[in-house]
Amino acid sequence: MIENTKWPSCERCIQDGCLEWEDGMPHEFRVHEDAIYYFDRHYGWEGETISFCPFCGRPLTDEAWTELKKRLEGHYATSDWISVKDRLPEESGDYLALQNSVNQYVLHFSSRHQAFNCYDFDEIAKYKITDITHWMELPEPPKEFAP
After folding, report:
1. What is the mean pLDDT of each run of 10 residues along the chain (147 residues)?
2. pLDDT of res. 88
3. What range(s) does the DUF551 domain occupy (predicted)?
4. Selection from 3, 103, 125 nearest residue 55 by Cα
5. How far apart are the first and last CA of the chain?
């Protein structure tokens, strides 16, 4: 499944404790331990407790890791997710994609480039996303919205 040690912190949620807290820029955000801090030019740094990094989605506390693992175990057990290790979509189109086994996006898949986030008409797959771990077909719209 997912392991704490294999999901590195992003540049915004580094857990090494060596943040320098000099004056920041207006509206600057920093994540440290289990809180997000923002700089206000009148009041300085102010913070609020959070469980997940809002920039990369990484859990910040042991409780958040436990909750994430519970959600993923239950979700994967009953879902239609397909691992990219097993196969990729056969046709170009829009698919629900899972990045790093956590973040969900609707992305276009190019059968020509065999990559997500690019199109068949692209000469090269310049903006492809390489850390997609799973994908699934988009669900049908609710019947009241179907043509």
Report:
1. 68 59 68 75 77 78 81 63 90 86 80 77 66 85 65
2. 92
3. 81-143
4. 103
5. 40
Question: What confidence score (pLDDT) does residue 60 get?
Answer: 81
Number of neighbours of residue 10 by Cβ within 10 angstroms = 13
Rounded to an integer, what distance in angstroms lies between the CA atom of residue 64 and that of residue 59? 5
Domain boundaries, the chain: 4-75, 82-145
88-91: long-range contacts at Cβ-Cβ below 8 A with a sequence spacing of 24 or more?
Answer: 88/114, 88/135, 89/135, 89/137
Going by the DSSP 8-state scheme, the letter that residue 73 receives in this structure is: H
Residue 125 sits at the vertex; the CA angle it makes with 124 and 127, to the nearest 5 degrees, is: 130
Distance CA 116, CA 89 (A): 10
Say if CB 9 and CB 15 are below 8 A apart: yes
CA distance linking residue 139 with residue 98, whole number of Å: 15
| Sign of the CA dihedral running 34, 35, 36, 37 | negative
pTM of structure: 0.44
Distances (CA, A) of 122 to 49, 88, 126, 138: 43, 19, 8, 23
